[in-house]
Amino acid sequence: MKKLLTAFLILFAVSVQAQTPSVDEIISAHTKAIGGLEALNKLTSIKSTGSVAMQGMDFPLTSQTLFNKGVRIDVDVMGQSVIKAYADGKGWEINPFGGKQTATEMTGEDLIEMKDQINSIDKLIDYKNLGHKVEFFGEETFEGIKCWKLKFTHKDTKKETAYFISSTDFMLIKTSGKKTMMGQEVNEETLYSDIKEFNGLKFPMNVTVIINGNVFQVVSMSNVELNAQIDEKIFRE
Known about the structure:
- This protein has 237 residues and is of the alpha+beta class.
- It has a single domain (23-235), classed as Lipoprotein localisation LolA/LolB/LppX (outer membrane lipoprotein receptor (LolB), chain A, Clam).
- The protein is built from 5 helices and 13 strands.
- A 13-stranded antiparallel sheet has the order 6-5-4-3-2-1-13-12-11-10-9-8-7.
- Strand 8 (145-153) and strand 9 (160-166) form a beta hairpin.
């Protein structure tokens, strides 16, 4: 009886292991689900327009990325421009509501986050070439969706981010981790929803950011333009 039980447990363990995909298998399936590596490699630029909701108000938003060149995000807040831009290893920002009336050098996490957006291949998908680390962290259910959970460690900041990828359609459902805001470390969750397809590639049109359990902002995109004409001059101060 003991031998039979031992044999059963071994077979069960082998079965579970066989059903659990590796990190690279999960990332490969996710890449295919959003449109495939070939389509991503063909991207030269992306321009997204929409709005960001904060404190009960909606503000027009435009995000422009010329891959391997620069990134710029513009938000119109009650007639005043809030800008974040990155190119050639440097970033700058204008935020009248944060005491930055003119272009101010960007540093810290904000700079690294902008830099990470300059590649057409997401840092999770291209983690090996970029030098990051990704580990399998089990299975977890979020709002009724069974997800594979991956732990991503950034090579520069050593910051850890949990990625929740649906085990059914392999779309990204959520990320979570720590973030520094106004000198304080906070818990940040980002939820991705309302997936739409543009020229064979899929994008979340709704991105909700939750800080310490409370909704901080909701970004709603109305349009995504791929391989748009973008002037490199907009990334410079």
